[in-house]
Specification:
Rossmann fold, Alpha-Beta Plaits, 313 residues, 13 strands, single chain, alpha/beta, six-stranded mixed β-sheet, 35% helix, 11 helices
Length: 313
């Protein structure tokens, strides 16, 4: 459908602009009227529990699934009207492993480059350079089925870079990886950003989002709950520190009597605070705690506060 929701202008400063974006499947509003923008050169994250609408949004951006209503531009173009032009400029790392099992690492990259009409000599050099970039040069002639999970994710990232994309779309890029493989991919993504790439990602790893994202949104039930930088969201919704104390009737009664807000999580009481020292002093002086633990507040605390602790399937 034509996009009439944006004012015409000579230059579009944002890589992605979305207004009142909706995606409906039957009776389900998978994406329920969200608005956001992604600036050139930033890492932008979509966080949320299962079924929040993250992947549906990514598929709209990647020209895989048409929107139901609302407006969106990618590189200033409507994905419904210019999917081929947009796809020429994006690279996609899907959540599932969809490498071609009949080819080697080199063969996957070389063959994929031909879809973009990259000449064979350039495609050969590009495949070689990308294997080095993701540290798979020693696996050049190894078939996909013989690679570890981490190697497959790195190869998928290399494949997404074959066409020198201006926008990289990552759906759970490090899912199921060990710490070493995760850190290698983080390092490569930060290097890509330093080279001017714009990156949009979804992840369930909150430490990954905090480390990589310049800005992010937290979604639930198809809606955006909050938007901002990881540090700003932590400070705004939780505070600087978390005090954890073992749950006892005496501690709970004491905190209630002192009008100190807290949350009970199983056998633990959590208190968000700007100064853990002050809270700890009150606890030790008046509440007779058995054990007190203080730690920095994290993006995970924000996520759980906004989306709840109930398990989503």
């Amino acid at each position: 459908m034509p996009n009439h929701c944006f004012k015409e202008r000579e230059a579009i400063p944002d890589i992605i602009e979305a207004q009142e974006l909706r995606k409906i499947f039957g009776d389900v509003n998978a994406v329920d009227g969200i608005s956001f923008s992604v600036k050139k050169g930033e890492v932008f994250g979509f966080l949320g529990p299962n079924g929040a609408g993250k992947t549906s949004t990514m598929k709209i951006i990647a020209c895989v699934s048409p929107r139901t209503s609302g407006a969106i531009r990618v590189f200033g173009m409507d994905p419904d009207l210019y999917p081929a032009e947009i796809k020429q400029r994006i690279g996609v790392v899907p959540q599932e492993t969809n490498l071609d099992p009949d080819f080697t690492c080199y063969g996957n990259l070389f063959t994929y480059s031909r879809y973009f009409d990259i000449p064979p000599d350039i495609a050969h050099k590009k495949a070689k350079d990308l294997l080095e970039f993701v540290q798979l040069q020693e696996k050049r002639d190894v078939t996909v089925e013989k690679l570890s999970g981490g190697m497959k994710r790195r190869l998928i990232l290399a494949r997404a870079l074959v066409n020198n994309p201006d926008l990289l779309i990552l759906d759970e890029p490090t899912i199921g990886l060990d710490p070493q493989a995760r850190h290698l991919i983080w390092e490569r993504l930060k290097k890509l950003q330093s080279q001017g790439n714009t990156i949009v990602l979804t992840t369930h790893y909150l430490d990954e989002a905090a480390r990589l994202c310049d800005r992010l949104v937290i979604m639930d039930n198809g809606k955006i709950l909050v938007e901002g930088s990881p540090a700003d969201l932590v400070k705004q919704y939780v505070g600087n520190e978390i005090v954890e104390v073992e749950r006892t009737e005496e501690v709970v009664s004491c905190l209630l009597g002192k009008s100190i807000p807290f949350e009970v999580i199983g056998d633990t009481v959590q208190i968000a605070a700007d100064s853990s020292r002050e809270v700890a002093r009150v606890l030790f002086d008046h509440c007779s705690p058995q054990k007190v633990l203080t730690r920095p507040a994290t993006l995970e605390d924000v996520f759980l506060k906004l989306t709840g602790r109930k398990l989503r399937e």
